[in-house]
Design goal:
The complex is a heterodimer of chains A (about 120) and B (about 110). Chain A is an all-beta fold. Helix content of chain A is about 0%, strand content about 55%. In chain A, strand 5 and strand 6 form a beta hairpin. Chain A is globular. Chain B is globular, with a radius of gyration of 13 Å. Classes of the chains: A mainly beta (about 120), B mainly beta (about 110). The interface of A and B includes residues 45, 92, 103 and 108 of A.
Chain lengths: ~120, ~110
């Protein structure tokens, strides 16, 4: 089984400031890692994912995340945030599967509400 | 980018009634999922569906729930006799048959059981 902990339920920042949203996970098997964003009244949009390879992953909207296997972390960062980045951010993991398909079973964290103030 | 489409966006029903939530996944995807998010709680996995059968389900997905892919495009979640605790946002998602493809979510159906 997997579990995901997002350490901060709310993160307020000022526009153009850097931000880091923290995510730690536990799993008895190897996992894929994801960050999703949910804007008000919308669905879950994939920001980025780590499947294999380079531990630094770049996503959409200037976000990036680094997989740290020893610390079982996958923190999300952005060097300079905009008002439009205000949203809820979800970290998720899925166990690695055999076979050739993309068969995911996501376990989500509780989410971090990022509020960007002018 | 192609989208997963869910209808309706809001559904209100009386306790004990049957509801069907509908989803149109990405056309060339092969894996289909339902997740739900009760207000204030985590997004939770309900079920995955592949090759016209359930491939995995959570303990939440009991006999009151069923899924179906009635034709080549739709994927439905049926709740036979709704309970108050079924009130949640239900998300449909799909992913492709090729390794490393994205898991894409729809905008959700907000189900309110009264």
């Amino acid at each position: 089984a997997q579990s995901v902990t997002q350490l901060d339920s709310q993160v307020p920042v000022f526009e153009e400031a850097p931000v880091e949203l923290r995510c730690n996970y536990s799993s008895s098997v190897s996992v894929y890692l994801f960050w999703y964003v949910q804007y008000p009244n919308q669905g879950l949009q994939l920001l980025l994912k780590y499947l294999s390879g380079s531990t630094l992953v770049k996503g959409i909207n200037g976000f990036e995340a680094e997989f740290n296997k020893s610390q079982t972390s996958f923190h999300l960062r952005k060097p300079s945030v905009h008002i439009s980045d205000t949203a809820e951010y979800f970290c998720a993991v899925s166990p690695r599967r055999g076979g050739g398909g993309s068969n995911y079973k996501l376990t989500f964290g509780k989410g971090t509400l990022l509020t960007v103030n002018p | 980018e192609p989208e997963v489409t869910q209808t309706p966006s809001h559904q209100v029903t009386q306790m004990g009634q049957e509801v069907i939530l509908r989803c149109v996944p990405i056309s060339n995807h092969l894996y289909f999922y339902w997740y739900r998010q009760i207000l204030g709680q985590k997004v939770e996995f309900l079920v995955s569906f592949y090759n016209n059968e359930i491939s995995e389900k959570s303990e939440i997905f009991d006999d009151q729930f069923s899924v179906e892919r009635p034709d080549g495009s739709n994927f439905t979640l049926k709740i036979r006799s709704t309970k108050l605790e079924d009130s949640a946002m239900y998300f449909c998602a799909s992913s492709g048959g090729v390794l490393n493809e994205k898991l894409l979510f729809g905008s959700g159906t907000q189900l309110s059981v009264l």
